[in-house]
């Protein structure tokens, strides 16, 4: 049975928007009809798909309102699309505001419209601690027909912080294997001024403070003292000023390349030997999976869902938060032992192709939709 599915996400660059869009694309490839309902075109929706539709939520600025009522406009758009297109379900990525809006739309349309909500982390770890929103997040979860989270750790955290009366199941994130694989990138490494004998270490994030990019720089300093290497910093965000200041203080200006926001990160992973992600909050860490799919071993912190993505000693290494000494010595060991590097790189690829394979994950979502509609 082909389904008609509404998907709502934050369309801007960010893991949750990437997952929502890639899921929509793969479901459409399986013949389902997908309706994206959001404030702008999801950024990964970069070509025409005959059974994917985009419905833009427009918010008018009326002088009587201090704030434009985006959430109400979204709920109203969801109801309009659900009714006209006869949607079977809405898949909301984020409990608030998206699942709340979907609940409102359901009240307007029909109790038969099902709501699937996926928790991505930021909605729980940040907002769950804001007591003014806790009850609303709980409500959004409990009123959804089915709730998934991107890691077991996020479920545990949700239960601790919010304690909803709802079973939540884990559906891991995935990547599009057709995009993320090691590519032949010609002279890209030399074009960046990196010599053949230098190792390339990479960090990709939105440079929010929770990503602890300064720990990446401190770790790199220790690696660089022992191994000829360069650090690629990819992305931009509020912590960038502090990070560049630290790079200066540590005299690393010639060894660190600030590449800003980049679209084709698979090409950058293809010249990389190691990826570092030292976040203090991370429900999954999609960027780890992207690197692993390109055969790049990762070192991450024992935080949130990271240890579910990196199996310590098998597909990468896990370190304690802030322990840059241990992180650096694991990195040096990995970068100076070719056999070990190959072994971990193979382990990472295997995990991407089994535990996190897109076919498997998309099937899990599809099965979950069917179960819901048969109830
Ligand atoms: O990490 C961010 O700053 C972006 C955020 C988002 O909402 O897009 O990412 C969250 O969702 C991703 C997709 O499920 C996860 O891979 C990230 O780990 C998660 N971020 C946090 O938990 C901080």
From TrEMBL:
Domain (Glycosyltransferase subfamily 4-like N-terminal): residue spans on this chain: 13-177
Any one biological process term the GO annotation gives: bacillithiol biosynthetic process
Ranges where the Glycosyl transferase family domain occurs: 187-348
One Pfam family per UniProt: Glycos_transf_1
InterPro entries: Glyco_trans_1 (IPR001296), Glyco_trans_4-like_N (IPR028098), Glycosyltransferase_grp1 (IPR050194), Thiol_BshA (IPR023881)
GO molecular function: glycosyltransferase activity
PANTHER family (UniProt xref): SULFOQUINOVOSYL TRANSFERASE SQD2
Protein name according to UniProt: N-acetyl-alpha-D-glucosaminyl L-malate synthase BshA
Organism for this UniProt entry: Priestia veravalensis
Taxonomic lineage of the native organism: Bacteria, Bacillati, Bacillota, Bacilli, Bacillales
